[in-house]
Amino acid sequence: MRRPTLADVAARAEVSAKTVSNVLLGRPHVSAATRAKVQAAIAEVGYDVGHATSQAGRGLASGRTGRIAVVVPNLHQPYFAENAERLILALAERGFTSTLRIAPDRAGERDAVLGVTTADVDGVIICPHHLSDEILAGGALRRPAVALGGAPIKTLDCVLMGEYAGFVAITRHLLATGRRRLAYVWNGPAGVVPTGDRYAGFAAALEEYGVEPEPSLVANSSDWDRRASGYEAMAGLLRRSGPRFDAAVCVNDTIAVGVLKSLHAHGIRVPGDVAVTGFDDTDEGEFTVPSLSTVSPDQGEMVAAALRLLIERLDGYDGAARQVHTGMHLVLRDSSAPA
Prior knowledge:
It is built from twelve helices and twelve strands. The radius of gyration is 22 Å and the shape is globular. Strands 2-1-3-4-5-11 form a six-stranded parallel β-sheet, sandwiched between helices. Helix 5 packs across helix 12 and helix 10 packs across helix 11 (253-265). It is α/β, with parallel strands linked by helices. The protein has three domains: 1-47, lambda repressor-like DNA-binding domains (434 Repressor (Amino-terminal Domain), Orthogonal Bundle), CATH 1.10.260.40; 56-161 and 299-327, Rossmann fold (3-Layer(aba) Sandwich), CATH 3.40.50.2300; 163-296, Response regulator (Rossmann fold), CATH 3.40.50. Strand 1, helix 5 (78-93) and strand 2 (97-102) form a beta-alpha-beta unit. The mean pLDDT is 91.
C-alpha cells in the first residue's frame, strides 16, 4: 500500500506543500487556523510525521535552518524550471523548506556553491550551466553542495545524466528508420567541431551504421536555453545547404522547439521530409506539432540521487566527492516517425 505523501496532506488541507512543511517544522508564521487544518489533514490521510521530519528535525536540533537552496541558471528554460519544482517538492516531502536562487553566469554559480550568496541555508543543490573545477578553484565549501546535471566536477558531489547513452539511443532510432543525412543542432560557435558527451554519442551511433558525420550539417546557435536560438540555427543551416538532410538531432528540447518552427516556416514537413529529436523530455514536447521525440534523463531518479547525497552530507558524511550516474530512456513521438 502506498505511503501517504506530503502532497496528499496539502491536497486534503487545500494548502501548498510548503505550508505543510512549515507546520511540520513548527514555523511560527503559520496561522492557528491553517495549522489546525493541516494537522487534521495529516490525521485523515495517515501521514507519517516522524518519517517526514526525521532529517530536518535532526538539523534543527543542531542549530540548522532546515532550509536548502535550489539554484538554477534561469527559469525560461523548461528543463531548469521543471527540475527546480521537482527539487522543491521532494525537499518538502522530507521536511525541508527551500529557497530558489538564480545564478545566471559563472560568478553566480561559484558564489552559490561556495556560500557567498547562500549563507542562510544548510545546503545547496545546483543545476549548473557553467560550473567546473576551474571555476571553483581556490574556493572552500562552507556547506554541503550537490550538482544536479552538468559536467563532472571532481571537487563536488555530482549527479550525472545519461547524455552519451541518450544520444547513442536517439541517433540509432533515427538511423533505424532509414535516415542517413543527420544534422546536429547545438550551441557552439560556427566552424567549431561539437564537443561533449551528447555529440560523442551522436558520432558513435553514426559510426555503428557506417555513416560519416558531415561538418556542413552542423547547425550552430548562440544559446541552448532559448527556442529562438534553435529557430535561427536551423534557418542558417537551410541558407547554407538547403534541405540536404533528413533528420535534425537537437542538443535539447528547447532548441528542438525552435527547429520545428523554423522548418515549418520554410515549408519543410516534419517528419515527412525531416525528423526532429530533442533531449530532456520537458513537458512542452508533448504538445508541439508534431509532438517531439526526445530522451528522458530520468529526472525523478536524478532528483532522488541528489537529495540522498545532500542528506548524507548533512548527516555527517565527510568523504571524497562522489559521482552518481543515472539512466535514460527514449520518448518516441510523431516528430521522428518514419518518412
